[in-house]
Amino acid sequence: MSPVSIEAVRQASKKDLLEEWKPKLENASYFEDALNQAYVILTMYRVLYRAKHDNVASKRVASEWAKQTYGKPWSDLVEKAEHWGHGREMKSAKETMDFVRFTLKELE
Q1: Can you give the pTM of this predicted structure?
Q2: For each of the chain's 108 residues, which pLDDT tens digit applies?
Q3: What angle in degrees, to the nearest 10, is found between the helix axes of 93-106 and 34-52?
Q4: Residue extents of the structural domains in the chain
């Protein structure tokens, strides 16, 4: 099995962003679920990291980079997603949708 290039990973991430996540913005109810909020936020900062770096990083590395690079309000949102646990509310539907929009804009 041959290694996958970072460019192929970037293209796949962007395709996923455009084909899966962008359409979900039309269904605000999807973002009401706390599990979905946490998953989307964690996914978006990893997409951002891959778009800007020549390597794939751990969640921790990508998270720290995103918080330092983009600052507030995204750093607070990432922290909230990292500390979320099953059965707890996040109440960040609007902010999560805004983060998807931000990610889309960053990858234009």
Answers
A1: 0.93
A2: 888 898 999 999 999 999 999 999 999 999 999 999 999 999 999 999 999 999 888 999 999 999 999 999 999 999 999 999 999 999 999 999 999 999 999 998
A3: 20
A4: 6-106
